[in-house]
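Researcher: Let's do a round of design. I'm pasting the structure tokens now; please hold your answer until I've finished.
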């Protein structure tokens, strides 16, 4: 078994797209569904796949499929996504797609003849950066979201999905569940840069995923009394910004107490968006809108975490003479990847670490309808969705090697 043939090394592949979609304002990359950068990546993926002898097809939901062997029952899917968050890193998404191409190139160069069809997949709008719904391509395909709702989605510029799709050349009335394609897929494996520091201390470049944490979003509304910043005494205030600050600290403390990944327990609480109304420097706000992102291992644990946070938020708001309201905006239960496939991967790879992840992925969406698995590649910074996301050339190479080994096992009967 050799490493990838000339021209198909993972570092070379990623190097070819290193200048596509750079974001000069934020740093890193902004590659959003159907924008010029994302289209350029689609063209690159198509050309690279065709030069490898794969047959490329764009499905009705704009996911791209590069087939090795005639598409049919028992297909093994492998891939990830090409789009990014605003100002994202170079690895989140493209590493999985390019690693799949590199692994297939190595197998073809070795004369491997698969007993089953293989498809390298690039799923569309995984980050939800343009239309606000993560894993849009895989959710449409599996029926996880209603096509009518998707057609009506708008991007930050007010363009509807319907118009953006039509302009791209996709029939907006044709989007939706794709049961025939799903039925042909026997399993899906997604390689991804690790989003976290789990592998940094484990002396291993690659891990197998156990599952994805349950996660949801809650809207927090703190209501106080708007007033003059100079004329209102400190004792006479009902300042919702102060209430929100205290509540956010409480939420972080509660999650911190429960988050113990070393013992298999995960609890995450984040407030990353805060909007004081009216938002003036010399004005005590009358209201603060904030959003809580919370994650946990199970439905029960996540619900208990949010209930404890909600109670603390109300208490802290009351301490500052304010009211707090908590409204659920979205919730997704935990994903457990197929245990049989997971065990097959870990034994094939000689027992790498098995890690849970707090991030959502297309493999998590597909897990509801077919066996899926994930491989993570070490990220020494532990940072993702940022220009500081990183993986070494050697670790990326180890990721390709692992994917090649796993795929080789899955496509020979
Ligand atoms: Zn990703």
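Researcher: That's everything. Go ahead.
Model: Designed sequence:
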């Amino acid at each position: 078994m050799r490493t990838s043939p000339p021209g198909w090394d993972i570092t070379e592949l990623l190097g070819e797209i290193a200048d596509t979609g750079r974001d000069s304002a934020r740093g890193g990359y902004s590659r959003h569904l159907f924008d010029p950068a994302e289209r350029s990546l689609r063209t690159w993926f198509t050309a690279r796949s065709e030069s490898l002898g794969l047959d490329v097809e764009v499905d009705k939901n704009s996911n791209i499929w590069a087939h090795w062997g005639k598409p049919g029952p028992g297909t093994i899917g492998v891939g990830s996504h090409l789009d990014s968050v605003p100002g994202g890193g170079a690895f989140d998404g493209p590493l999985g797609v390019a690693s799949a191409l590199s692994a297939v190139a190595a197998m073809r160069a070795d004369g491997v003849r698969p007993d089953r069809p293989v498809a390298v997949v690039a799923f569309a709008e995984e980050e939800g950066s343009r239309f606000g719904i993560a894993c849009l391509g895989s959710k449409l395909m599996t029926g996880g979201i209603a096509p009518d709702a998707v057609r009506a989605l708008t991007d930050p510029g007010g363009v509807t999905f319907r118009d953006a799709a039509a302009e791209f050349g996709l029939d907006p009335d044709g989007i939706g569940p794709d049961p025939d394609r799903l039925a042909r897929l026997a399993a899906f494996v997604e390689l991804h840069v690790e989003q976290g520091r789990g592998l940094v201390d484990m002396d291993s470049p690659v891990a197998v995923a156990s599952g994805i944490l349950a996660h949801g979003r809650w809207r927090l509304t703190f209501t106080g009394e708007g007033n003059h910043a100079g004329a209102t005494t400190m004792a006479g205030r009902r300042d919702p910004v102060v209430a929100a600050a205290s509540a956010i600290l409480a939420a972080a403390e509660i999650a911190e107490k429960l988050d113990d990944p070393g013992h298999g327990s995960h609890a995450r609480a984040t407030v990353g968006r805060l909007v004081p109304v009216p938002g003036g420097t010399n004005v005590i706000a009358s209201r603060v809108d904030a959003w809580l992102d919370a994650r946990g291992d199970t439905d029960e644990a996540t619900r208990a975490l949010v209930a404890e946070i909600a109670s603390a938020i109300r208490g802290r708001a009351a301490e500052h003479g304010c009211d707090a309201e908590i409204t659920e905006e979205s919730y997704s239960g935990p994903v457990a990847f197929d245990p049989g496939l997971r065990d097959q991967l870990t034994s094939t790879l000689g027992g790498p670490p098995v890690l849970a992840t707090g991030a959502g992925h297309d493999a998590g969406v597909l897990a509801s309808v077919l066996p899926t698995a994930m491989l993570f590649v070490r990220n020494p910074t532990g940072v993702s969705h940022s220009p500081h996301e990183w993986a070494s050339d050697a670790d990326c190479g180890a990721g390709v090697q692992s994917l090649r080994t796993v795929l080789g096992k899955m496509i020979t009967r």
